[in-house]
Automatic annotation (TrEMBL):
Domain Amine oxidase: 67-421
InterPro entries (UniProt xref): Amino_oxidase (IPR002937), Carotenoid/retinoid_OxRdtase (IPR014105), FAD/NAD-bd_sf (IPR036188)
UniProt cross-references to NCBIfam families, sorted A to Z: crtI_fam
Lineage: Eukaryota, Viridiplantae, Streptophyta, Embryophyta, Marchantiophyta
Organism: Marchantia polymorpha
Keywords linked to the UniProt accession: Carotenoid biosynthesis, Oxidoreductase
Pathway membership: Carotenoid biosynthesis
Coiled coil ranges: none
Example of a GO MF term: oxidoreductase activity
Gene3D superfamilies: FAD/NAD(P)-binding domain
Protein name per its UniProtKB record: Amine oxidase domain-containing protein
Length: 450
């Protein structure tokens, strides 16, 4: 999706960002068991992938081919029909002819049924079921509450590949900024917006914290949507503000960023550690006592693809461990509560790394940065500290997700994780495109091509 972003001058983002494919596998999956198969790779090579799966379960190679074909169908048809589409009404969303190409190949049960249940149609081994459903974490869901259509997440990684911006993701941010500035955009940073001003159903501009008023007849807010309604618009749009507060939210995460004195050789670029308590492990921990001995978590080790990340022989890794958000009874009443769950999370992660044969990193940690649910809420204005914004359950997908425009305030538009189509870099970029097209259509029809 990054490569589809073009500056108005027609230059490619490749001029600003170097993307490198993560190879030979998209991910390495570690299973929380001390016997049998302890890890598997999500390989791009279909033949090698089938052979690897056959060693775990007879017939799994053929099942994988069926799964991949169906997931790719959901990706191709679903992206055009649901993700990139701008829904202006329910009937636009429920347009039967638009749905027929997808339903022709996939049953509604496979698309809308519980993801874990649909995966049992392909694999009997719980490890393989888990291997192709952990991606639900990307949208803050679990295999036990996500619809089966999210198999498209695995499909896009295995068919399009996983790519990494050399130099880190800040290069993407800087590249987008440079492309925008080259065609005349002015970018102001370190200027906190106090409110979005509007009157008589028309946006007027924004007022900064220092009192500066910036007039504009179009405002695009990309902060988390509940924050926009409750803090930047205040009580003037009460109905939507109340609705958002009572909506379902994704998981929060405890994140550790560690600089290590030694390299962890068994890690791939992307790594997922899955508990041996497959269903129980997806219950979001609310305090130190509810974090499992071997929880689900993700480890990012980018130096496998980008040698500039850290000095030779050392390592720089990020760990993300899903937990409850602050609206789910998360036990945070004081700094000591936060410290307790962070310490428990750190201990469980390090213990799991040891038991998985990665190594005891206790004495390797040179520096540490920690993010917990209060950090996400206080530093990034994310409602309840939900790291992925609004959840992606069936009643908060596509048309049922907040629109990219506020109908009662002309000129006010939204982009980001909690509006359509959803969270994650590809979806947010697709959403930015939807928002841009809506702005052109409603304000500059002679430029929109409509």
């Amino acid at each position: 999706m990054i490569r589809e972003v073009k500056s108005v001058s027609g230059e490619d983002m490749d001029d600003y960002v170097t993307l490198k494919k993560v190879e030979p596998a998209a991910y390495r999956v570690f299973f929380g068991e001390d016997e049998g198969v302890q890890s598997l790779d999500l390989l791009y090579d279909v033949q090698k992938m089938c052979l690897q799966l056959e060693q775990v379960e007879e017939g799994a190679g053929g099942a994988f081919l069926r799964f991949l074909a169906n997931a790719k169908e959901a990706l191709d048809k679903g992206t055009a029909s649901f993700i990139e589409r701008d829904f202006k009404s329910f009937w636009d969303y429920a347009d039967v002819p638009r749905l027929l190409p997808l339903l022709k190949h996939l049953s509604p049960i496979e698309l809308l049924g519980q993801h874990h249940s649909t995966m049992r149609n392909y694999f009997k081994n719980p490890k393989l079921q888990a291997m192709f459903t952990f991606q639900d974490l990307y949208v803050g869901l679990t295999p036990y509450n996500a619809p089966g259509v999210f198999s498209l997440l695995a499909a896009t990684e295995l068919t399009d590949g996983v790519w990494y911006p050399v130099g880190g993701f800040a290069k993407v941010r800087d590249g987008l900024a440079q492309a925008a500035q080259k065609v005349g955009a002015t970018i102001t940073t370190k200027a906190t917006v106090k409110r979005i001003d509007h009157a008589n159903g028309q946006v007027q501009g924004v007022t900064l914290e220092d009192g500066t008023f910036m007039r504009a007849n179009i405002v695009v807010a990309n902060a988390d949507l509940p924050y926009v309604y409750n803090s930047l618009l205040g009580s003037k749009v009460k109905t939507q503000a109340s609705k958002l507060l009572s909506s379902k939210y994704s998981a929060s995460v405890i994140a550790f960023q560690w600089a290590l004195s030694s390299r962890l050789e068994r890690l791939s670029h992307h790594n997922v550690f899955l508990s041996n308590c497959y269903e129980e492990s997806w219950h979001r921990a609310t305090d130190a006592s509810t974090i499992l001995e071997r929880p689900n978590f993700y480890v990012h080790a980018p130096s496998r693809t980008d040698s500039t990340v850290c000095p030779l022989g050392t390592d720089a890794i990020t760990v993300l461990l899903p937990v409850a958000h602050l609206g789910e009874g998360f036990s945070i009443g004081s700094a000591s509560d936060d410290k307790q769950i962070v310490e428990a999370a750190r201990e469980r992660v390090i213990s799991s790394l040891v038991r998985s044969g990665i190594g005891d990193i206790s004495s390797m940690i040179l520096s540490e940065v920690v993010y917990s649910p209060p950090t996400w809420q206080d530093s990034y204005n994310l409602q309840y500290g939900a790291a992925f914004g609004l959840a992606h359950n069936l009643l908060q997908l596509a048309y049922f997700r907040p629109d990219v425009a506020e109908p009662s305030i002309k000129g006010l538009y939204f982009a980001g994780a909690s509006t359509r189509p959803g969270n994650g870099v590809p979806l947010v970029l697709m959403g930015a495109k939807v928002t841009t097209n809506r702005i052109l259509e409603e304000n500059y029809p002679f430029l929109s091509g409509n």
